[in-house]
Amino acid sequence: MANRFQIRQHEIAYKFIAARDGDFCLQCKKKPPAVKLQIDHADNDPDNWDPENLHLLCQKHNLELRGKTAAEHKRLIRTYSANNERERARERGRENTHLVKDLVDFRNASPEMKANSYYETQYREWLLTIVREHGFITKVEAINSGAEVVGCSPLTANRYLSKLTSSVGPLKESKDATGTVVISFR
Ligand SMILES: [Zn+2]
User: Fold this and answer.
1) How many A from CA of 92 to the centre of ligand 1?
2) Residue 154 CA, ligand 1 centroid: distance in Å
3) Looking at residue 178, which CATH number applies to its domain?
4) Which structural domain, as residue segments, surrounds residue 52?
5) What is the pLDDT along the chain (186 residues), one digit of tens a residue?
């Protein structure tokens, strides 16, 4: 009988593999509830929980592979994984196609939206150039000069700046020795 720890370990591994490879049999692609998925150990060692060694297979295919030598078992798993990886990459390609379509829709959108995106691009280019050349710019300058250069309001410039200094942006805000807030590269 599996103890509590083993059941928990099994659950964690299952979730991880399903997220990595997809929630289906790596060989026949059947999904629950049509089949029951089991965790396969590619090297035939049920105690090896290294993620590389683990894959989901339906009962039938898990049993089939367990009957093979470890070398043959691993070779087959590698083949199935490579095929699956290619298919998943194609799926992601389709998602990117959606992105391109959304972008085209966006470009055909209202002039206000286009203007907004135009100003933002200009502001971004201007600010990144200044910071690259000088190492930093004060926040006050980044907002006021930026608004003037681009032709938007300081409020809008501040909004663009906030995006650039957000946790995913290339810039950061900090204070210099005199307590002035400056913008520089992360
Ligand atoms: Zn299967």
Assistant:
1) 23
2) 61
3) 1.10.10.10
4) 4-94
5) 567 777 777 888 898 898 888 999 999 999 999 999 999 999 999 988 888 899 999 999 999 999 999 999 999 999 999 999 888 888 777 776 766 666 666 556 556 556 667 788 889 989 999 999 889 999 999 999 999 888 888 998 999 999 999 988 899 999 988 999 999 999
CA of 93 to the centre of ligand 1 (A): 26
| Whether the Cβ atoms of residue 182 and residue 175 lie closer than 8 Å to each other | yes
The answer to whether residue 102 is domain-embedded is: no
Same domain, 137 and 176: yes
Decide: pTM greater than 0.90.
no
Cα 59 to averaged position of ligand 1 atoms, centre (Å): 7
Q: By CB neighbour count within 10 A (0-12 exposed, 13-18 middle, 19+ buried), where does 116 fall?
A: middle
Structurally, how many domains does the chain consist of? 2
- Helices within the chain (DSSP H only): 4-21, 59-66, 70-107, 111-134, 139-150, 154-164
Q: Please choose, from the candidates 32, 31, 27, 51, the residue with its C-alpha nearest in 3D space to the C-alpha of residue 41.
A: 51
175 and 140 co-located in one domain: yes
